[in-house]
Amino acid sequence: MQRTPPRHLAPPQRTRSRTRDHLLVESILALMAIGLTTVILVSSLIDRPESSAARLPNLLPPAPTTTRAVATTPSPASSRPAPAPEDGNLLADAGFEAGLTGWSAVGKAGLERVEEGRSGDWSLRMTRGSSRWPGALHAEVASLKPDRRYEASVWFRASRPGVEVQVNLFELRGGKRFAVDSVGAAARAGQWQRLDVSHDTHRPGATLAVELLAPTLASGTNLLVDDLAVRATSSSMSIH
């Protein structure tokens, strides 16, 4: 017959509560180890200078469109000889020998024909007047034809150095301008300089206009303009 040992001599038994406590402690320790490993890995990635930049999206601005607007930076004047007025010039009176027909003041600039021509007897003298952007506009040079490039040249001379001169060649339709091509330069006092600008037809049938601006023309300073020419050639866009 089997005898049951006394209670004080029997082996101790683990209760279910002690087993659950042991498992809970092991789980907490495992989670702490995983968290510590994650912190170490993140810290090592942050310390690498190329890591953050490599994950950033491309934030470069989009490429500019091909639409050309009014230029703000003056460009050097051309040294090429101007074409003779009779060589296909679309301006009937390129040297203002007969007057100022077709020209109008931009803003409230002062326009006057004077006997200080570059090649002929007369030229156009521009003064600031009360305008912030003094200038002169010929709004009806020609009716634009398809597949044509229009090249304009202008000679100018300022009474003081540093005057900014800008030539705009653009299209007009319904009184609205569009497709502006522009070139500019800073004047050297007492010297005749030339500017050239070209324009490709965008809307056949629109009117081609030429505009001369002198935004830095101060009071007491004048700008002479002479020997303008606008000619039509084959457009480079039509050549394949």
Biggest sheet: strand arrangement = 1-4-9-6-7
Report the CATH architecture of the largest domain: Sandwich
- Percent in strands: 25-35%
CATH top level class name of the largest domain: Mainly Beta
Number of strands: 10
Structural class: alpha+beta
- Biggest sheet, open or closed, and with what strands and sense? 5 strands, antiparallel
Describe the secondary-structure layout:
Layout: H1 16-47, H2 49-55, E1 103-106, E2 110-114, E3 123-127, E4 135-143, E5 148-158, E6 164-173, E7 176-186, E8 193-200, E9 207-213, E10 222-234
Antiparallel strand pairs: 1-4, 2-3, 3-10, 4-9, 5-8, 5-10, 6-7, 6-9
Write a structural description:
The chain has 240 residues and is an alpha+beta fold. The protein has 2 domains: 16-55; 103-238, Galactose-binding domain-like (Jelly Rolls), CATH 2.60.120.260. The protein has helices spanning 16-47, 49-55; strands at residues 103-106, 110-114, 123-127, 135-143, 148-158, 164-173, 176-186, 193-200, 207-213, 222-234. The strands form 2 sheets. A 5-stranded antiparallel beta sheet has the order 1-4-9-6-7, with no helix packed on it. It has a 5-stranded antiparallel beta sheet with strand order 2-3-10-5-8, with no helix packed on it. The protein is elongated. Residues 45-85 have low confidence and may be disordered.
